[in-house]
Design a protein that fits this description.
single chain; alpha+beta; four-stranded antiparallel β-sheet; six-stranded mixed β-sheet; binds zinc ion; 3 domains; 206 residues; OB fold (Dihydrolipoamide Acetyltransferase, E2P); Alpha-Beta Plaits; 33% strand
């Protein structure tokens, strides 16, 4: 494949990628609005945040209590935290909640629900159909698993894009795998990273 064709494919693939991720753009989580009364931190827009991510307020509150190690209580639409916590701390914990319980582990779409299958809570994605047992995400996955240009990775092609290119996922990134077939595990080298899309070439297939 010549360079021209490859660049053409990159453009098409990027367009398709952006279209496919509309649901992710749509989700705008409000920033926590915190005031302090004595030593108590009050998240005034807790209900707005929880409404937006479509989860049980009690579940979110319990998560924050465990993660912050502080007692919390729900007071109508507000959340009371029994200690002074910073805006950044709350924002970070909410984003950790999103990564653990809301965003699909594969395509990162927020259109998911938690289903109990047997004795396991499973995150089911309505966007790509992925199902994964819930696991607590400790760090932002994007910084942990970041495809780097020139490096090699082993990836599994989970879908095929509009231009026939294979697609895989690594952390919060989409890996475009030209020539990759659905279900195939291949070793790729990253050629270019644009935003959260990485374009690769197959160097070995199984
Ligand atoms: Zn998904």
């Amino acid at each position: 494949m010549g360079d021209f064709d490859y660049n053409d494919l990159l453009e098409n693939a990027e367009g398709a990628f952006l279209k496919g991720n509309k649901s992710q753009e749509r989700l705008k989580i409000p920033d926590p609005d915190i005031i302090y009364e004595g030593r108590v931190s009050i998240v005034r827009n807790f209900a707005d945040i929880v409404d937006m991510i479509n989860r049980d307020p009690k579940h979110v509150a319990k998560f924050l209590m465990k993660e912050l190690g502080i007692g919390v209580s729900i007071d109508s639409r507000r959340l009371l935290i029994n200690r002074k916590v910073s805006y950044e701390q709350v924002k970070e914990k909410i984003s950790q909640y999103m990564d653990s319980y809301v965003r699909c582990y594969e395509c990162r779409a927020p259109d998911t629900e938690i289903q109990r299958i047997g004795r396991v809570d499973v995150l089911v994605c309505k966007a790509c159909g992925a199902q994964h047992p819930i696991r607590l995400v400790r760090e932002a996955k994007t910084s942990e698993l970041k495809p780097e240009e020139g490096k090699e990775y082993s990836v599994t092609v989970t879908e095929v894009g509009k231009s026939g290119e294979g697609r895989s996922h690594l952390g919060g990134y989409v890996i475009v795998v030209p020539g990759g077939k659905k279900g195939q595990t291949v070793k790729v080298r990253i050629k270019k990273v644009l935003g959260t899309t990485a374009f690769s070439e197959i160097i070995a297939s199984k």
